[in-house]
Specification:
137 residues, 4 helices, 80% helix
């Protein structure tokens, strides 16, 4: 859970805030999808090279490219997760009652899926690339 303290301007439109929240959530999941597709392509290329009689140098290059792409794609996921968290708190403060509040409170205590996808998924992929790189050496 992100802890953000701020004052909400009550003149902000709750419906526009809701639309922005949905837009950012959609953008976030699109970027997670791009991350998974990119890493899947690098992993498939690595597996194809590993199955054949490819040069060790080419395997190392593909492995490092996969690692670099995971590191580069992690930051935008982090930024979006932080922005989504902030906007969710704004929406919660604008809409003091309602279905959204009940939904957010229902999942309290469990790690958020956005946090898992923004941090633990890239960390797992980075660990995988490091292990594969070490295996090549």
């Amino acid at each position: 859970m992100c802890k953000i303290e701020f004052e909400v301007d009550k003149t902000w439109d709750v419906n526009l805030t809701k639309e922005l929240l949905l837009h950012i959530d959609n953008l976030y999941h699109q970027r997670v999808n791009i991350f998974l597709v990119a890493e899947g392509i690098f992993l498939a290329a690595f597996a194809a090279l590993f199955a054949g009689q490819s040069d060790k140098f080419v395997k190392v290059v593909v492995c490092l490219a996969g690692l670099l792409s995971a590191l580069l794609l992690w930051y935008p996921l982090y930024r979006l997760e932080r922005g989504f968290c902030w906007l969710a708190h704004v929406f919660k403060k604008l809409e003091a009652t309602g279905l959204y509040i009940k939904y957010r409170d229902f999942g309290r205590g469990a790690p958020s899926s956005n946090r898992l996808m923004a941090h633990w998924l890239p960390i797992g992929v980075i660990i995988m690339w490091v292990v594969l790189f070490i295996h090549l050496l």
